């Protein structure tokens, strides 16, 4: 694998759209109501909308020779391959929809959910896109973790 592979979710457009809607509400409120009467509401709508629209559009995970870099709506992290034990799919069930997302299982027992890559299905079915992303991330992990190992004499 040469270069970076980017993983995204088509659901990011919903987050981005929610942010744009909040920006629109904030701008409309600011134009109709004097700032002095509703400063908190206007500020929350404008800043929250800006945050959601920008981070929603940029939300992704990138895999390269050094490991996994994740930029979510509310978090970001960079994890080297050496720290990752396994990459799996986690299902979180709801009443109507089940969400599936990649989860990085780290050495030492900690887990990092890549919520920004979540996919949704009806019932308890696996999400094909998320399963494919996990498969590709695991292939990259095996490639890069294997590349760092050297054979031991006599083995």
Brief rundown of the structure:
This protein is an alpha+beta fold and 155 residues long. It has helices at 12-32, 39-58, 128-147; strands at residues 5-7, 60-64, 67-71, 76-80, 84-93, 97-106, 111-113, 119-122. Helix content is 39%, strand content 29%.
Strand order of the largest sheet: 1-2-3-4
Q: Specify the biggest β-sheet.
A: 4 strands, antiparallel
Can you give the helix content as a percent range? 25-40%
Q: Note the beta-strand portion.
A: 25-35%
Q: What Rg is obtained from the alpha carbons, in whole angstroms?
A: 20 Å
Q: Report the span from N to C terminus.
A: 27 Å
Outline the low-pLDDT stretches: 150-155
Highlighted features:
4-stranded antiparallel beta sheet; 155 residues; disordered C terminus; 8 strands; alpha+beta; 3 helices
Account of the 3D structure:
The two termini are 27 Å apart. The protein has 155 residues and is of the alpha+beta class. The strands form two sheets. The protein has a four-stranded antiparallel beta sheet, with helices on one face. The relative contact order is 0.16. It is elongated. The chain has helices at 12-32, 39-58, 128-147, and strands at residues 5-7, 60-64, 67-71, 76-80, 84-93, 97-106, 111-113, 119-122. The protein has three helices and eight strands; from the N terminus they run E-H-H-E-E-E-E-E-E-E-H.
């Amino acid at each position: 694998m040469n270069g970076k592979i980017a993983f995204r979710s088509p659901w990011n457009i919903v987050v981005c759209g929610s942010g744009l809607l909040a920006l629109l509400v904030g701008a409309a409120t600011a134009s109709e109501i004097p700032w002095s009467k509703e400063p908190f509401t206007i500020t929350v709508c404008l800043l929250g909308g800006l945050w959601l629209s920008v981070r929603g559009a940029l939300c992704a995970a990138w895999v390269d020779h050094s490991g996994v870099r994740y930029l979510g709506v509310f978090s970001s992290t960079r994890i080297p391959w050496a720290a990752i034990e396994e990459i799996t799919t986690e299902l979180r069930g709801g009443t109507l929809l089940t969400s599936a997302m990649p989860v990085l299982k780290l050495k030492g027992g900690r887990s990092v959910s890549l919520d920004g890559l979540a996919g949704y299905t009806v019932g308890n079915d696996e999400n094909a896109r998320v399963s494919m992303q996990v498969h590709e991330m695991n292939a990259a992990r095996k490639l890069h973790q294997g590349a760092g190992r050297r054979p031991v004499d006599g083995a």
